[in-house]
Amino acid sequence: MTDTPVLRVRDLHKSFAGIVAANNINVDVADGEVVGIIGANGAGKTVFVNMVTGYLKPTSGLIEFAGREITGIKPRNATGIGVCRSFQISQVFMTMTVLENLLVAVSLAGQDRRSLLLPLHSDERVKECERIMARYNLTEHREKAASTLSQGVRKLLDIAMAVVSKPKLLLLDEPTSGVSSDEKFGLMDLVVDALKEQGTAVLFVEHDMEIVRRYVDRVLAFYQGEIICDAPPDVTLRDPKVIEYVLGESHRPGVDRQAMEVGHA
Amino acid sequence: MIRSVFSDKTILWAFVGFAILSLIGTLLPNWVLNNAMFGLARGLAVLGLLLMWRTGLISFGHALYFGLGAYAVAMLEKFTGTTDIFLRLLAALIVAGGVGFVIGLVLRHYRGIFFAMLSLAFSMVLYGVLVKTEALGSTDGFSVSQTTFLGWRPSSKYPLFLSIIAICLLATIGVQLYLRSALGHLTTSVRDNEIRVEYLGYSVARAVHVKYVISCALAGVAGALIAMALGQVDPDSMVNWTVSGELVFITIMSGPGSVVAPFIGAITFEFLRTFAFEWAPHAWQLIVGGTLLGIIFFLPEGLWSLIRRLWTKKERRRDRYTSSAGARSA
Asked: Among B186, B196, B211, B301, which would you mutate to test the A interface (most chain A Cβ atoms within 10 Å of its Cβ)?
């Protein structure tokens, strides 16, 4: 690890017509670190991800990637320097097969733009895609159109496409949303292992606290556009403010969650 | 390189098809040869529209480039006396491609109905300028002299027909190779999901722009070829919105399935119009419109889907025969 954080955010602020969506956000993410982002709906999690990846321009503040300022960068330029992302709703090419989706991603990840004029299905690219499909358990879906895949497999494809360029920083917006509970942990095991292997720092938005507890080094808890806690999961998930504003009373230590759920029912 | 080009079945069949057409051309009467030339030239413009359609965009203003190509031929002759086919085509390519590049800088940011209507608006600006400007021939336009080939003035239209076939073949090969490339596959990618293309690090606007300029250049060359085949250019038959409509009509009729489809669609359209006019001079539009309706209802993927369906049936029959012969011999 180097001393310069891979992501450095200072005093980030975003408002839409006077409504504050993000306020005074300060975050450092180190190389290879896995950071979870939690918060209720509308807390500003996705706005933060969108600002870091260039989808939204901050109203004020500073975003640095590996020591270089990237505030307000265009999405394609963010990808070019090594900041990639996946989406809450999978963003894949629906009418294309899994292989074709990856082939396009691999060809665009190449530095040599002249190679874009070569046939898409070149041996070299197909081999690279086969390696990615094997890594992300997509081989059996190789020739299926993306529109026919289950949510879980489509999420995997979305993430696999985002990481083909071997980014230094990957932001995942709710990687397990819409994925069945059977598939959730398998998907996260695959993704986190693969990203740790290539030393990518990961920031992911998540609502499932089991996932957060199991995979992250640190948790950022958002409330009304601000970070109210930034600490390891054991600390954040026990923080009284986080329990009050993000997790709910059922997560307070000593409370019998099952009894509360029955009581509510 | 040549082997890899001809290993592509579409290119191989296009080559065979155009070769057969060029041989048949020697036997055809003049009016059929003319219709075939108009059809092939329009097919070239439709090939460009197919590229846009695959990107998810429909242009209702390609008559602008069609007309620019045609007028480039006429103006070149008016000001320099040049009638050489190569110079005429070069002028059309540069003018249509250049104007397409400039207008594309604006249009590449628009999608759907806005793209369609803005492209129509630009084409109607040229139509207005041509109709109102005496120096540009006004509503009468210009006549175009017979085309020469490096100084040679042929006595029949067959050399021009052959040249049109050669240009169509070259364009078919070029567009097919482009569509096979990673850059060409961005047509479907952009249509499917622009956000993902941007987040893979490529500019969607640039991808649209490149395809737009290619399609404009093809339309320009098509216009130049029609001007040479017809011997006349005028705003109504080259630049009016009805010309754009016709090109969109043929694009839908052909279907987006193959780079060969535009030529089949355009030739079919040309003969359909000729015969419809012959049989029902007062209701020929009804016949042409009815045909398009029939195609949309029964062949939503265009005429090409009919050919593909017949081809698949034939392949299935051959597979059945091969497997039953194999079983017998075993």
From this structure: B196
Q: In the predicted model, what is the mean pLDDT of residues B124-150?
A: 94
Does A145 fall in a domain? Answer: no
Q: For chain A of 265 residues, list the mean pLDDT of each consecutive stretch of 10.
A: 83 92 94 93 92 94 94 93 91 96 92 82 93 92 95 91 91 87 85 88 91 92 93 91 81 59 47
For residue A117, which residues of chain B lie inside 8 Å, CB to CB? Answer: 181-183
Mean pLDDT of B181-206: 93
Query: H/E/C letters for each residue in chain B?
Result: CHHHHHCCHHHHHHHHHHHHHHHHCCCCCHHHHHHHHHHHHHHHHHHHHHHHHHCCCCCCCCHHHHHHHHHHHHHHHHHHCCCEHHHHHHHHHHHHHHHHHHHHHHHCCCCHHHHHHHHHHHHHHHHHHHHHCHHHCHHHCEECCCCEECCECCCCCHHHHHHHHHHHHHHHHHHHHHHHEHHHHHHHHHHHCHHHHHHCCCCHHHHHHHHHHHHHHHHHHHHHHHHHHHCEECHHHHCCHHHHHHHHHHHHHHCCCCCCHHHHHHHHHHHHHHHHHHHCCCCHHHHHHHHHHHHHHHCCCCHHHHHHHHHHHHHHHHHHHHHHHHHHHC
Pick among A107, A114, A159, A169 to test the B interface (most B CBs inside 10 A): A107
Nearest to B199 among A84, A94, A118 (CB): A84
| Distance of residue B188 Cα from the nearest chain A Cα, in angstroms | 8
Instruction: Report the pLDDT value the prediction gives residue A183, as an integer from 0 to 100.
Output: 81
Tell whether A222 is covered by a domain: yes
Residue numbers in B near A82 (CB within 8 A): none
Is residue A122 one of the residues assigned to a domain? no
Is residue A188 less than 8 Å (CB to CB) from chain B?
Answer: no
CB contact under 8 A, A119 and B180: yes
Among candidate residues B37, B20, B5, B51, the one with its CA nearest the CA of residue B261:
B51
Q: Is A96 on the interface with B (CB under 8 A)?
A: yes
Spell out which residues of chain A touch residue B186, defining contact as CB-CB under 8 Å: 104
Domain range holding A68?
7-92+150-264
As for how many domains chain A has, the answer is 1
Task: Report pTM.
Answer: 0.89
Which of chain A's residues have a Cβ under 8 Å away from the Cβ of B205?
A: none
* Binary contact (A103, B182; C-beta < 8 A): yes
